[in-house]
Amino acid sequence: MLDHASGRIDIARLQETLDGPWAEVRQAHRKHLDERFLPVYGETGDQARERITRLLGELPVELGIAAGFPAEYGGRSDVGASIVATEMLAQVDLSLMVKAGVQWGLFGGAVAALGTKRHHDAYLRDIVEGRIFGCFAMTETGHGSDVQQLRTTCVYDPQTQTFDLHTPHEAARKDYIGNAARDGRMAVVFAQLISGGRRHGVHAWLVPIRDEHGNPMPGVTIGDAGPKAGLLGVDNGRLSFDHVRVPRDMLLDRYAQVAEDGTYSSAIENDSRRFFTMLGTLVRGRVSVGGAASAATKAALAIAVRYGDIRRQFSDAEGDREVLLNDYLAHQRKLLPALATTYALHFAQTELVAALDEIQGGDGPVDEHRQRELESRAAGLKAAQTWHATRTIQACREACGGAGYLSENRLPSLKADTDVFTTFEGDNTVLLQLVAKGLLTGYRDEFGSLDGWGRASFVAEQVREMVLERTAARALIARLVGAVPGRDDEVAVTDRGWQLKVFEDREEHLLDSAVRRLRGGASTKKDRPFDIFNDVQDHVLAVAAAHVDRVTLEAFVAGIDATADPAVKELLSRVCDLYALSVIEANKGWLLEHGRLTPARSKAITGVVNGLLKELRPYMRTLVDGFAIPDAWLHAAILREEPARQDEMAAHDAADPQAAGADSPGGVADSAAAAP
Amino acid sequence: MLDHASGRIDIARLQETLDGPWAEVRQAHRKHLDERFLPVYGETGDQARERITRLLGELPVELGIAAGFPAEYGGRSDVGASIVATEMLAQVDLSLMVKAGVQWGLFGGAVAALGTKRHHDAYLRDIVEGRIFGCFAMTETGHGSDVQQLRTTCVYDPQTQTFDLHTPHEAARKDYIGNAARDGRMAVVFAQLISGGRRHGVHAWLVPIRDEHGNPMPGVTIGDAGPKAGLLGVDNGRLSFDHVRVPRDMLLDRYAQVAEDGTYSSAIENDSRRFFTMLGTLVRGRVSVGGAASAATKAALAIAVRYGDIRRQFSDAEGDREVLLNDYLAHQRKLLPALATTYALHFAQTELVAALDEIQGGDGPVDEHRQRELESRAAGLKAAQTWHATRTIQACREACGGAGYLSENRLPSLKADTDVFTTFEGDNTVLLQLVAKGLLTGYRDEFGSLDGWGRASFVAEQVREMVLERTAARALIARLVGAVPGRDDEVAVTDRGWQLKVFEDREEHLLDSAVRRLRGGASTKKDRPFDIFNDVQDHVLAVAAAHVDRVTLEAFVAGIDATADPAVKELLSRVCDLYALSVIEANKGWLLEHGRLTPARSKAITGVVNGLLKELRPYMRTLVDGFAIPDAWLHAAILREEPARQDEMAAHDAADPQAAGADSPGGVADSAAAAP
C-alpha cells in the first residue's frame, strides 16, 4: 500500500524523472511557446494553413527544433534534442508539429542524410532557417506501404547530363505529401533510378517544384489532397512529374553515384540492402511520430483526469459526500490503466531516443546490428504509441461526455489530428510485421520481402534459434527474473520479477511456436510463400506485440530503478504494477491456455488491479501533473469554467437544500437522456 | 464448409432478409434520396448548418420520416417506420439524421407523448410539416446523466396563472441542445415543477424561444455550443431562462396537471416513477441512435471492404498472383468479425424495432413489465451499437490507410459524426448500468437510484432470483440449448446450441455472482451504498455486456431461422458462427477462469475463427452488398477512382515487366514509409 503520508509527492521530483535527459529542451518549450501557438478551433482549412505556416516562421530559436543538424548549418548535432522538440511541439499543436516535422525532419533530414557536402552547402542553412520549404515525396497513390516498388522513374541521359523524372500513370503520383499543396518550394523525390537501360532501385533527388512566385515548375503538376479528418494546418498535396529534367548533381548521392557518362556506382552492391540502408537513416521520423502521439495522449489524459476530479455526475444517495467522476471504478478503469501505459511508453520512448542519439548522433560508422535493432524498436514503439493514443484519446473524449465532443475542449482536435499516426510513417500492422521479422531472423536476413517474407525456404532456414535479447538495465532485469521461484503460485502477482518473467515467457513461447509453424508450413507448401506466411500472420503479429510489451515493461523498470526520490519511486512502482497487470489481464486468455496462469491466480489479478485503482485514485491528478504540461497548453474550456460552475451550484444548493434532491428518496436518477 | 458452387448468393434474397418488415421504407429512401442529400466535404460550420436546414425542408414526403405521428397530424401511426426512416437517413448524412431526429423524434415526439390534445391540435401538424422547428431541452451543463436532478425551476404562480421558468445558475443552463443555436422556434423544456411551495419533480413545458423574426424571446438567452468534432450541420446551442413567464396550459400535462389555483395532480403518485414513465415514452430516441450508428457502420464497412477488394498492397513474391488487401489474414481479422457483429446487431435492432412498434404503437395501455424490458433492451443495444460503430469505423479508416484520412473518402465524417453517439441519448456506461439494474431486480424495483442504487439494504432484498428470460424464438433457442450434451468437449464449437449455452452460462454466472457480491457487501457496510456498488461496478457492467451479447446472438439465430433461401441461410449461419466465436474468443479469459472452456478447446477456437475467415473471404463483398447501400451513397473517391488506377497500373506493368519488380529478388519491400 502506498503510504499516503510519506507518499505525498513532490511534483518537481516526478517531473524531473519524466523530463529525462533532454529536460532543458522541454523547459524551453514550456517557457517560449506562448498562447500565440495554441490551436484555434473552428478555422477553415485555408485559415489553418495560413496560420500554421506563419507560426512555423515564428518558432522561437530557443526551442532547438533544428538541433539535429550540424553546427555549420545552424544546428548543434543534437539528434535527441530535435526529437524531444518535435514531441513538445505536438503537445501544443499537432499541425504545427507535423508541418515542422516535414520541413526539418523528413525533408531537411533526407537532404542531410542522403545528400553530400555540395547539397548541404547549397541548401541546408536555408532549410534550417526556413527560407526553403520542402516536401518528402515518397508515397504514391498506388503504393502506400510497398515503397520499394514505387513506379515513378528517373532515367539518366548522358547526352544532357540530366535525369528524366516521370510519373508513368496516375497510381504513381506522389500522394498525401505534406507541404506540397501550398508551401513547398522543393521536394526530395523518391523514384526508380535507371541508367544505361539498367534499373538500380529507389533513390532520391532534390527537385524544385515551385518557382519563386509559387507557381509549379514546368512539368510539375501539383494537386491538393483536400479536406482531411484533422491536421487542417498541413497542406497535404499530390505531385506528378511529366518528364521533368533534373540536373545530375541533384541526385542525393551519399549512397550511390551516377557518373557523367551514366556509370552507376555504390558502396552497397545489393539494391535492396542499399535502399533499406537509405531508409534506415530516416528512422527519426518514426521515433518522432511515436513521441508526438504520446505527447497528445498526455494532454488528453490531463484534460480528462482534471475534469473527472471536479465534475460530479450523480449525488451520493446519502448526499453527505461529493462523488466525483474519478471516484467511479468504471471511470478509473477507463483512465488509470491508460495512464499507467502512458507512463510505461514514456520510459520506453525516452530509452529509444537515447539509443537513437547514441547510434546516429556520432560521426563514426553505424553498427549495423544495432541500427537494425533500433529500426525495429522504433517501428514497434511507433505502432504501440499511436494505437495507444487513438484508443486513449477516444476514452478521454468519452470520459468527458458531451463536453468532450465540443472543439472548445480540445479533445476533438487531439483525436482527429493524431488519428493518421496509426497509418503514416508506416502502417502499424506493417510495422509490427517488420518487428516480428527482425525477431524471427535475429536481424540477420538479406533485407528480403516483408510481405511474402521472401522465399519460404529461405526464411525457414533463417529463423533464428530463440535468444531473447534484453534491453536496458539487463543486469537488474536478469536479477529480478532470476529471483522468481519455480512455482509461480508462491509469488505475489505484484512481484516485479514474476511480472517480467510472464512478459518474457509470453514473447519466447509465441516466437518459438511461430518459428515452428513457419518451418512446418514451409516444408509442406514450398511453392506458396504468401500462404505460408498469411496463415500465421495473426500469430506473427502477436509475437511483435508481446515483444513491444516486454521492452516497454523493461524500460519502465529501468526508469524506476534510476529514480532517486523514494516517494516518486514508490508511486511509479505502483503505476508499473498497474501497467504490468493490465497487460497480463488483457492477455489472460492466452496465459491460461498455455498454463502460465492458473484460473485462481487469473481471477485474483482482477481484484489486485481494482485494488491498485483504489490505491492510485488519490494520485490521478498527481500523475497527470507530472507531465508538467503548462495549464495554458491544455486549452480546454471545461477546465477553465467548470470549477466556477461547480462552486456556484454548490453554493446555490446549500442555500436551497431541496434543489440538491434531499427530498427525493432514491436520491439520484437512473436514466441518462442527454439530448443531442 | 460453404459450398461455393451452391453457395453463390442471390443478393436480392440476402437484401430481403436484412431489409425485414419495413423493407418498403428502406426502398423509398434508396429511391428518393438522391445526390442532393449527400454530405459535402470541407464546408464551414455555417455552410453545413444552412445546407442541412434547407435539406430538412426538402426531404421527400415518400420517406415517411414523420410516420410515427397519428394520421390526423400528418403521420400514419407507424412507429417502426419512423425509426427505420431515421436509420436510413443516417446512411446518407448523419447531420441530416440528427437534425431530423431532434425535430420529429425528440421535439415532436415529446409534444406527442407528453402533451395532450390541445397541444397536439395547436402544434403537431406544424411540427410534422416543418413549419415549427423545435428543441428538446433536457440536458444541463452541470447535469449530463443525472437528469432527475436538473436545476432549472418552473414555479407556478396562481395570481397570473403562469409558470416562472428560471435558470438559477450557469451549471443549470441547457447545453448541447440540437436546433437551439440557429433554427429552433420552440423548445420542450424540462425543469423542476414547483407549486404552492412544493416540488413535484421534473416535468416538461412547451416554450417559445424565438419570435417570428428569429430573435430570442424576452428572458431567453441563446448561446452557440460552437464547433464540434462532427455533425457540423447540427446547430447545438445553450439556453438560459431569466424568469420567463410560461402560460399554464403550456405544461405538457399528459402525466400531471396543475389546476388554476395551483393544485397539482397526477395519476402516478410517486415523483420518480412518474418521471421515469415520462422518460419511457421517449425510448425511441435511443432506438434511433442505435440504428443510426449501425447504418453508419455498414457504410464504413462497405467502403473498406470494397477498397480492400481492389487494392493491392504488396505484390506476391512470385508475382504470379494478385494479392489484394482483403487476402491478408490480418486485414480479415480487422474487418470480418466486425462485419459479422454488424450482422448480429442488425437482427437484434430489427427485433427491437418490432418490439417497440408493438408495445408503443397500439392504442391500449402499455404493459409495464414489457415497457421496462424494452427500455433495457433499447439501452443495451444503443450502447452496443454505438461502441461497435466507434471501433469499427476506426478500423475501417485504418484499413484504408492514408486514403481513409481524406474527407473525400467519407470515413472521416462517418467517424466524427457518430463519435458523439456513445455519450448522447444516454452515456453508454450509465446505460449499461441501467441494463444491469433491470436484470438484478427483475425490473421490479421502485425506480430508485441507478448510481448509488438506492439504499443498499433495499437492493440487497430486491435482487431477484436468477431467471433468465429468453427473447425471440424462445422455443428454437431452448431446443438448441437443450440438445447440447453434458460434456462440452464432445460438441463442435460451431454447434449453435453450444454457442448459445456458453453465452447463457456466462450471463447467468456473472449475474448470480454479482447478486452474491452485492448482498455480501450490503451485509457488511450498510452505511455506504456508494462503496458497495462501486466495488462491483466493473462486474455489474460485465453482466450487462454479457446480457446484450446473449440477446444479440439469439436475435441472429432467430433471424437465420426465419430466412427462406437456403444459400442465404447457409451463409448467414457461417457469419453467425464467426460472430459467436469472436465473442467467445474475446472472452476466453473469463471462460477459462470459470472452467467453461478447456485450454485445448480455447486454442482450437482461434483456429476455427481463422478457418471461418478463410471461408468467408470470398463473400466479403457479398456481405456488404447485402446492405443494399446505393453506390452513390457511399460517396467515396477511392471507390470511384481506384479500379481505374489499378487497371492502368496493371497495363503499364504488363508493358514493362521490370516495373513490377520482377528483377528484385525478394520481390517486395518490408518497410512502409508513407510520408505525412
Automatic annotation (TrEMBL), chains A, B:
Domain (Acyl-CoA oxidase C-alpha1) ranges: 280-440
Keyword Flavoprotein: yes
Biased composition (Basic and acidic residues): 645-655
PANTHER family per record: ACYL-COENZYME A OXIDASE, ELECTRON TRANSPORT OXIDOREDUCTASE
Acyl-CoA oxidase/dehydrogenase middle domain residues: 135-244
Domain Acyl-CoA dehydrogenase/oxidase N-terminal: 24-130
Region (Disordered): 645-676
Gene3D superfamilies tied to this protein: Acyl-CoA dehydrogenase/oxidase, N-terminal domain, Butyryl-CoA Dehydrogenase, subunit A, domain 2, Butyryl-CoA Dehydrogenase, subunit A, domain 3
Keywords, ordered alphabetically: FAD, Flavoprotein, Oxidoreductase
Pfam families linked: ACOX, ACOX_C_alpha1, Acyl-CoA_dh_M, Acyl-CoA_dh_N
Keyword Flavoprotein attached: yes
Sequence ranges assigned to domain Acyl-CoA oxidase C-terminal in this UniProt record: 500-638
Name listed for the protein in its UniProt record: Acyl-CoA oxidase
Family assignment from sequence similarity: Belongs to the acyl-CoA oxidase family.
Cofactor field: FAD
InterPro entries per record: ACOX_C_alpha1 (IPR055060), Acyl-CoA_Oxase/DH_mid-dom (IPR006091), Acyl-CoA_Oxase/DH_mid-dom_sf (IPR046373), Acyl-CoA_oxidase (IPR012258), Acyl-CoA_oxidase_C (IPR002655), AcylCo_DH-like_C (IPR036250), AcylCoA_DH/ox_N (IPR013786), AcylCoA_DH/ox_N_sf (IPR037069)
